[in-house]
Amino acid sequence: MQRKWLILFAVSLGSLMSTLDGSIVNIALPAIQQEFAIDLTTVEWVVVAYLLVIGSLLLPMGRLGEVLTFKRVYLAGFGVFTAGSVLCGAAPNEAALIAFRVVQAVGAAMLAAMGPAIVARTFAPAERGRALGINGVSVSLGLTLGPVLGGLLTTAASWRAIFLINLPVGVLAMVWAARILPAETPRTGQTFDIRGAALSGLSLFALLLALSEGQTWGWTSPATLAFIGLALVLGGLFVLAERASVQPLIDLALFRIRPFAFGLASVIVAFAGLFTATFLLPFLLVRGEGYTAVQAGLLLTPVPISMAIVAPFSGAASDRWGPAIPASAGIVVMVVALLSLTTLPAGFALPDLVWRLVLLGVGQGLFMSPNSSAVLGSVPGRRVGTASGILAQMRVNGQALGIAISAAVVASRLPVHLAELGGAPADQAAALAAAIHDAFVVAALVCSIAIVTSLVRGGGRRVQEPPRATVPAA
How many CB atoms lie within 10 A of CB 185? Predict the structure, then answer.
């Protein structure tokens, strides 16, 4: 086996672990809540803190890899993630658990930002899409296995096991990556923009916090408006700082590259549409149809499974024919899938749900690999790390945007449908289903924007490829 495929395996293992820990915790939240005797608002921060920190650090970590080398940041990410996992498993109280989840998220941000950059540097353009598609399989597996594995470990041992299991896996993964990833020498004269990193991190933290908590606080509440305003002010200061910096955190000139800029726009709206579905479907299944949380988690697995099957093939297709057609086709399929969910009847049979979810996963699988390949392949080699961090950041922004939009639509439409049905307690489930269907329509409209941005991205000029370390056959 050629060494480049071993490198891909090492990177995919990191993607699997960071994604798995983003989804494995949800199923254990009731057990954590019971052990620490805390309310629901507090226990939710075990998840929210992890997502906020990752979303705030992806941009700085992408640039840090360009300064310190991808390998060093990637290995450090594994170390921090594994140490944070052990600390989470030994947490004596909820405050410590949330703090250690922050540590874990710092490591996960390193892994998420460096993974695609290492793949883009290792593989030539003719193979990049397929390689990114295979790496996407690990992300899908993490999303699929998280709820199932979390439920099994929590039931067989305790919620602490979902963190402690990362210790042996993390140590083996670090040893493997240290041996397989090629040695790198940092480029001379590189500096890290600390001011830009602070401004971008704080701005994104404020924005993501407002989007994730806006429904709880109220979209027009002083807290929500204050954090949105803070995000805008800090974002403006960040742009000014980057324009004045000799070595900025983000080279703003990258956004003049059409495949890069339109590819990022496509990511935001595509993930907003996808996460509208994945966020609302558990409510529909549990509150609307009476399934348990574990059953609902299992019923959602067709999305990541079909995504994992399709992604490598769509990546290979983009290598041969270009990214525009497969990526745009994927968005079309996602829009159709979201609209089909609005026709899901009450008391549906399982096949009625499964084919719709398979369609959604196929669409995402068609879109993700070609789009990522186009974005990473459009930038100069010295900026692949930055591009990888920005790409990961846009996914997080799209997820947060999708959750915010869906929550706002359901909150505004639920009273309307409840009044139309008569307002009796027995009408709650039907009204909720109708409000969720409205949110799926809005998600389809938002997602359809990506059809345009994907088609008009153009071929773009092919920039000079990054110098890659020679990867000999094993």
Answer: 7
Q: What is the pLDDT of residues 417-434, one digit of tens each?
A: 988 887 777 678 888 889
In the 8-state DSSP scheme, what is residue 383?
Answer: G
Each residue of 453-474: pLDDT tens digit?
Answer: 888 876 544 444 444 443 443 3
The CATH code of domain 250-461 reads: 1.20.1250.20
Q: What is the pTM (predicted TM-score) of this model?
A: 0.80
Calpha distance 227→218 (Å, rounded): 12
Cα atoms in the Cβ-side hemisphere of radius 13 Å centred on 357: 21
Q: Which residues lie below 8 Å from residue 308, measured CB to CB, with a gap of 6+? A: 136, 137, 140, 141, 144, 365
Give span(s): CATH 1.20.1250.20, the chain.
Answer: 1-181, 250-461
The CATH number of the domain covering residues in 1-181 = 1.20.1250.20
> Hey, is 471 helix, strand or coil?
coil
Give 424: exposed, middle or buried? Use CB within 10 Å, 0-12, 13-18, 19+.
exposed
